[in-house]
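Predict structure. Chain length: 433.
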Amino acid sequence: MTIVINDTHDPALRSWVESANSPATDFPIQNLPFGVFRRRGSRDAAHIGVAIGDQVVDLLRCRQQGLLAGLPDALLQAAGSSQLNRLMALGGDSASLLRRRLIEILKAEAPQRADLLVPIEDAELLLPAAIGDYTDFYASIFHATNVGRLFRPDNALLPNYRHVPIAYHGRASSIVISGTPIRRPSGQTKRADEPSPVFRPSERLDYEAEVAVFVGTGNELGRPVAIEDAEQHIFGLALVNDWSARDVQVWESQPLGPFLAKNFATSLSPWVVTLEALAPFRSPAFTRSADDPPVLPYLSPSRTRGFDLTIEVFLRSARMREGGFAPMRLSHASLRDMYWTFGQMVAHHTSNGCNLRPGDVIASGTVSGPDDQSRGCLLEITGGSHPIALPSGESRTFLADDDEVMFRGFCERPGYARIGFGECTGIVLPAGQ
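Prediction complete.
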């Protein structure tokens, strides 16, 4: 399908769910992101839900009440599933049909149906899909340059970066839902003054503020996805924290790249915002400098676009929580500043014939921008040696035990309703035995 701005993006749309009409909500009726939930404390089976204001719409209940009648059978079956994979596999046209029907059910003029709703605070939010594979890119040239300068001051950006979207395959089994506590990992590390490595808890635990896409329709093994078709294979976007043990990473990553430094945990926000909901917030692909090499045709930037999506990072220590301090904002950056778009990532990922499957996750890599306030990880902010001051009188170079990291994402543009992504959070627990 071709995603266009239409009447579902009308900022005048209102819902009978009053909390959805607040200008500050992440989930107005123009958004309607998909997720998976069950009632907190129950043994109920998981249902697909849709966020609106401070409520979750139960899609299974909608189907049982006949409110989805007339939709294609495959879509009705997907709406009653316990995960989003079946809906993702149907593609953007089906997601659009369902989103439009939900707007009809939830708009201000429709009959109020409180029986369809569960307060978000009463819902246990689960991973949205069964994630078969996870690939993490390195798509911010600002992040790549900032990190490169720390280790290669005279050669910050490696020569392949402007030619090819760099990525590594992550571990899908350790992707966890937002709010899951993160145990500090242990691993081999070697301090500069040590003659040999030691196995110990990481002393340089970091976060990485990222955005991910969920793959919708897949592609057959051996059949690459053309750049002009790449977005047809994207279902929607979510927030990601790719936790990183920097001291483990620097020791293990040569010559093959990230392994144990990355695969101990990746946090994912629970709500998947569809491409259609994001239609008003698209941006041109990154503007390359005159010195940049031409992009090979299969990655043509003229056939893909970015997203004007802001991601903010907040930190709150245990002492801050005890003292009643608000979380401290560490950075804010925009996905529009990424050197490679998600369309280019999908096209490159499949260019050798690799097959993507519904529910696969493709992450952007750390979202960083051109200034000091838009650096998406502590390694960039502190350089590993210049601590930041917290309002509680503490300082941080990397994360301490009991620190809580919070990401928030949103899109804003005059003339349209604000679209939010909710939060992606995690608190650091001490290393295990």
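Summary: The chain has nine helices and 26 strands.
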